[in-house]
Write a structure and sequence with these properties.
Elements lengths: L5 H12 L5 E2 L8 H5 L6 E4 L3 E3 L1 H11 L10 E11 L5 E11 L7 E6 L20 H9 L2 E6 L22 H16 L8 E6 L1 H13 L9 E5 L5 H10 L7 H14 L7 H4 L4 H8 L15 H4 L2 H8 L4 H9 L11 E6 L8 H12 L4 E6 L8 H11 L1
Parallel strand pairs: 6-7, 6-8, 8-9, 9-10, 10-11
Antiparallel strand pairs: 1-3, 2-4, 3-4, 4-5, 5-7
């Protein structure tokens, strides 16, 4: 759950100054015509004609942010994928995402399932993007070192933009990205490409939380086996996170995003369904009620950023002393602490993160270790939420 990471802004500036452009690939590198127009399996619906990103473009970008490394990138192609999945009410729906493939290697090194961080608008959805301000660029790098890389828009973006994204709801990040993996398997079969055995899950912030949710879900299914998950700065412990947040007596820079999560939970869980004046003092309750359904961070200009002046004292007390059992239960349900992962997990977190507090990773490490998991924690010393994003992705790129 993040604002645009700083390094992605850097990438956008670099790309804007570049004369290289993406191009439609020749027919020889595009899927057969029937792949583009007809339903070919129970998961894959269509794969739009491929677009290429040259090795020179990707290398020029990566060289400016990773000056000490040589990743030997290659040209890649990207397909927009439409696939069958289920929405939050288990109704069939056609969702969208993107699939990246290297063009030079006939044998893929593995699969990377990348989960994107917070999107403030549909324009930022992976299937609506190119090289620039999003994790689309990160996915391109993984493909350029030899991996099939997939990136779901998630429900609420792309082809499902009319639906609301269930932001930070655990179940929203299970079936949908899993079905994209199945659709990608169909795509490889149709194009006579062998399915790699290795599967890596990667995500930062909201994407890290999503990756752990997906990891847990995959290990309850039978189609794939997770090799390793790399998770950076996710909100894994919703209960302790909420308590720490509501205990603060200072302005918090990301209050509008926290309220977005609260509105989602309040709307989709019948045990809540409360009016804003239950949560917020005036005039903030009236201002939030006037916004209707919240689909992005609430503007700071209409808030008091200090939790002690923004929230109702009774609400704060109910969370801190666990008397608000309805909300506490929902926070626990949407945490990713109470399970025993089979595949290893490597956590990263900026030690100065003032958005997704490091206690999330510290608590996840402790809980999963007690459950017998193989977990590693790499603290990114002195880094905040945005400034830790680049070191995280570069570290994972090196690992792969």
């Amino acid at each position: 759950m993040a604002r645009i990471p700083f390094f992605l802004l850097v990438l956008f500036v670099i790309y804007s100054c570049s004369k290289a452009e993406t191009t439609v690939t020749p027919d020889a590198t595009s899927p057969p015509d029937e792949m583009q127009t007809e339903e070919v399996s129970s998961y894959l619906v269509t794969a739009e004609p491929a677009v290429s990103h040259t090795a020179a473009l990707l290398t020029s970008i990566l060289d400016l942010v990773a000056t000490d490394e040589d990743f030997n990138l290659q040209e890649i192609i990207r397909h927009k994928i439409i696939y069958n999945t289920l929405d939050s009410e288990n109704n069939p729906i056609e969702a969208s995402g993107v699939l990246f493939l290297p063009t030079e290697n006939t044998e893929l090194r593995g699969i990377v399932s990348l989960q994107h961080s917070t999107l403030q608008s549909d324009a930022m959805a992976p299937s609506n993007s190119s090289i620039g301000i999003n994790e689309y660029t990160v996915a391109a790098f993984f493909a350029a070192i030899g991996y099939l890389t997939v990136l779901s828009d998630h429900i609420g973006y792309g082809t499902t933009r009319e639906s609301r994204h269930a932001y930070e709801v655990k179940s929203a990040y299970t079936t949908v990205p899993y079905d994209l993996l199945l659709a990608s398997k169909d795509f490889l079969n149709e194009n006579e490409i062998d399915l790699p055995e290795s599967l890596y899950l990667v995500g930062y912030s909201n994407g890290a939380f999503a990756s752990l949710a997906l990891h847990q879900y995959i290990e309850s299914q039978n189609d794939f086996q997770v090799t390793t998950t790399f998770a950076g700065a996710g909100a894994y412990d919703k209960n302790r996170f909420a308590k720490d947040l509501l205990s603060q007596d200072q302005d918090l820079n990301f209050m509008g995003t926290y309220l977005w999560v609260l509105d989602v939970y309040n709307s989709i869980y019948p045990s809540l369904n409360r009016s804003w004046d239950t949560y917020l003092q005036e005039p903030y309750a009236t201002r939030l009620a006037a916004l209707g359904e919240i689909r992005a961070a609430v503007p700071d200009s209409i808030l008091d950023l200090n939790p002690q002046r923004l929230f109702q004292p009774s609400f704060v007390e109910g969370v801190l002393n666990d008397s608000d059992q309805a909300l506490i239960s929902i926070l626990d349900h949407n945490s990713v602490l109470d399970w025993s992962p089979v595949a290893p997990i490597t956590f990263y977190h900026g030690t100065e993160d003032d958005f997704v507090f490091p206690l999330n990773t510290e608590n996840a490490l402790e809980s999963l270790t007690q459950n017998g998991a193989d977990v590693t924690y790499i603290p990114l010393e002195g880094k905040g939420h945005s400034t830790a994003a680049l070191p995280f992705f570069l570290s994972v790129l090196k690992e792969l």
